[in-house]
Amino acid sequence: MLKPRPTPTREQSSLNGLWSFCIDSRAGEQPWNAPLPGPLEAAVPASFNDQFIDPAIRDHVGWVYYQREVQVPRGWVGDRVLLRFDAVTHEAVVYADGERVGAHVGGYTPFDVDLTEHVTPGRTFRLTVAVNNQLTNETIPPGTVHETENGVRKQKYLHDFYNYAGIPRSVYLHSIPTSHVDDVTVTTRRQGTTGLVDYRVETTGSGRVTVALRDEDGAEVASLEGDHGTLGVPEARLWQPGAAYLYELDVQLHQEGRVVDHYTVPIGIRTVEVRGNEFLINGEPFYFKGFGKHEDSAVRGKGHDDAYLVHDTQLLEWINANSFRTSHYPYAEEVLEYADRHGIVVIDETAAVGLNLGVEGGLAGRPTTPSFSAETFNDATQAAYAQHVRELIARDKNHPSVVMWCLANEPASNEEGAREFFAPIVDLARELDPTRPLTYAVVMFANVGNDRIVDLFDVISLNRYYGWYVFSGDLDSAETYLRRDISSWVDAYDKPVMMTEYGADTQPGAHSIWDAPWTEEYQSALLAMHHRVFDEFPQFVGEQIWNFADFQTSNGIHRVEGNKKGIFTRDRKPKAAAHELRRRWRAFGDRKPTASA
Ligand code: GCB
Fold first, then answer.
1. How far apart (Å, rounded) are the C-alpha atoms in residues 216 and 234?
2. Which family is it part of (predicted)?
3. Which residues have CB under 6 Å of ligand 1?
């Protein structure tokens, strides 16, 4: 799916800003037919929850309404007029002047609504977006809604981050020509020093397609005619971790000697490959150093914020990280574009977090109910999941920063039915993108003996909390079990192994000379213990700590103002461990460290 971009044939106007806002119980019947009642306004892009002080709004379960007037530029006569929502969490129904014009399910992927037949250039219309934040056993991520004895609806879910909702990413009104470029797919290869760019263009309306590839100075380095083909770039500059280089693919659709549509896609020439137990970028072994992150900040919730994007990536650079995982959902596309431009390596994760009822059974992972059954995660869940994967790959397939798809976080891969549930999703991802390796983050209670799906994937990514949820305060035992656990995977499979989660909740300012959980010293010691063990395994390809920064969670007695496993606080101040990580990660580049390093 092409991101709206202004080009000589396309225009856009941002609808970000303040919108009228109301929750369903206060909105009256069919609120899309009139101005919303009440004085509330909500900022877009941002989650609505923390903007308001009223707990009935913050923890509202169900529909809320956003509304604003929109002016359609008068020059858009003859063009198609579209609305682009970069994300509405989790479900949207869109109305133009009271008429239902579109809908979408899935809170972290974009969608367009075609308004051409419903609005008039030069006139305004009232745009209402109904937003539903409910998670059920048929949504991705899943959850359940129940009613308390007092008639209050409560949302439960199987992940710890707070269920922020609303319109957390940008909204645009944009125009495209009637005959237009619908989609562009690019993959890249290398032959010696020549870069090969395979492209495919889909169009609406007939016409002649031409493509031209320009380097960063704007000089044309290759061109072709036709809706698919391979562009050869002699002495190609590669997109490399820490040293991005982007070409621009200029796509034009011609009709009767005229350019009717024009679109450009930034392209990075690079290869990604898993060979034996190595993860190769451009043929070189790559070692992931970084974090699982969240889109999370005070007041904005999961709202995309360019200032946080810049600051977070500055901190990644400061700490000598080279990568992150978009745990536990696809991030705003601006994040990937930034990573493309700055050479940051991304593991792009779906929103399939919590497909695991075992977590309700505590750390033993004993499911209270089977995860995969007609009543729990079923065919409808799988269909929603497949649709989500289609939308994710459609959006992110051309980003050079994305080197691997992480199809799920901590699914019940140890339970009966897991293989039947996940194998078709793996097949789908491979069909949609044959070029990128696949992984999923393996939950602590799935082990070599009981996991049923790991052979379907290319990289083994482990989430492990030795020294925290188990052997808390006993780093000695934690080390023994961690070593044994990693050895078991390394011995059983000829695949790269990495750690996608490990860490300890840490209250900044808490100190101890002993191994005392929650102290800054304990976080540092726990990480050092892990690193000692990782460095013993040549098959290890990366370490991504949980988490980059502290983040908001739902209420619960095991969280104090949110999850505190951040290396940085929620407002991005370093805890003591940050300085030690910085030293460790500076000592080796993007290559695997060894026990002696
Ligand atoms: C996990 C989850 C992550 C949690 C983390 C924790 O295994 O993948 O979403 O935040 O543990 O801190 O409990």
1. 15
2. Belongs to the glycosyl hydrolase 2 family.
3. 159-160, 328, 409-410, 463, 501, 546, 563, 565
